[in-house]
Design a protein that fits this description.
The chain is of the alpha/beta class. It has a single domain, classed as 3-Layer(aba) Sandwich (Rossmann fold), CATH 3.40.50.1820. Helix content is 36%, strand content 21%. Strands 3-2-1-5-4-6-7-8-9 form a 9-stranded mixed β-sheet, with helices on both faces. α8 links the parallel β7 and β8.
Length: 327
Amino acid sequence: MSRRALLGGFGAFSVLALGGCAGLGATGARYDASALSIDPTLFVATTRKPVNGGRAKPWFGPQRGSMMTLARAKLVPPDDGRFSLAAVGLADWRIDRIEPVSGEVSNLLAPDGGGSDVLIYVHGFNQTFETAALDAANLSDGIKFRGRTMVFSWPSKAEFFDYAYDRDSAMWSRDAFERVLSSIVSAPGAGRVHIVAHSMGTMLALESLRQLYARYGDTVTGRIGAVVFASPDIDMDVFSSSISRIGPLAGKITVIAATNDRALALSGQIAGGMTRVGAAEKAAIGRLGVRVVDASEAGWGIINHDLFLSNADVRRVIRRSIDTAAA
């Protein structure tokens, strides 16, 4: 059974076990089916080096590519029959095939005709391309997102002891991610861009937003929707400095933090004892002018680093952030 299937099972159990948690307990209405479940096509933008031309598993590896690759991933949704594993949260999405797309991001979005919102997921440390893509699918389907979904996948070695390589690869990819954002926000008639970034991917997303704001200024504000940083692996001082340079975009950020996030506790030790934003106290983060959700009580596991996937209440926070941004 995959890690994503286990997370789904934990999420199903957490709804029964927790019944809601402080700061997260508001129950949203039942939503329609996600757009991804109706048309299981995931947009892909990656700075990884293609493997097998990007047409056969593992599609994209841990090395850095000479250029950004665009593609459409055709997915197979979980069987949602009454007696299937999906019915109890133990099934998973899978990738059927990858179809590379030439040209610019506009070519990738072209068949949609524009107008719909786009959700972009940026993964964190220690991820393969496949796990990142499936996390994007699980997230989008879990929050019943009605627009198109994209995964931005940067070169991770997917090895526990390659933290430095992953961190450098994430930062190396910031220009490419800015290019993706710039292409979407400047497209006539395009909807809003919503960003959910996890762990180390939040630093990449924040730096790209900083570059985007430097390029467009306040004119870009209306094209960026919700920005959710789940368990951000960012130094508090670095975060404070960058937040002060993105103008009104800072007000669109929601940080999901947990003081008992053990992965970020280890990251802080590696970083010389500097507290990571995702493991800081709610009040300390809030003073920087962003919205904060304290998910410390939502995690009952050993690590508590993947709550945006495993906990239904945290997923509702993400959905509400998107709904508020679209209102």
